[in-house]
Amino acid sequence: MAVRLAVAADIPRIVEMVCALRDAIGGPVVPEPDKVAETVMILMGSPSGIVLVSDGGFIAGSIASTIISTERFAHELGWFAADNSGLRLLRAFEAWADSRGARARLSTGPEVLVLPRLRKALQRRGYRPYETAWVK
Question: Which of 8, 31, 38, 78 has CA 20 to 30 A from 46's CA?
Answer without folding.
Answer: 31
